[in-house]
Amino acid sequence: MKAIFILKKLGQLILHILFWGGVLLFYTYFFGFDNDNFNYVLSFSLFLMPITIATTYVFIYKIIPKYLITKQYIRFGFYTFCSITISAYLIVVSVFYGLIYLSNFDYSDMAPISRSLLFVATAVYLVVIIASGYKLLKLNLKHTQETSKLENKILEAQLKLKEQELNYLKMQIHPHFLFNTLNTMYGFALKKANETPEMILKLSNLLDYLLYKIDKPFVLLTEDINHIKDYVELEKMRFNKTLNIDFTTRNISEDVKIAPMLLLPFIENSFKHGTLKNGMLKIVSTITCEENKIHFDIENTSTQEEELKNGIGLTNIKKRLDLLYKDNYSLKIDNKNGIFKVNLTLNTI
Question: Which residue windows are coiled coil (predicted)?
Answer without folding.
Answer: 145-172
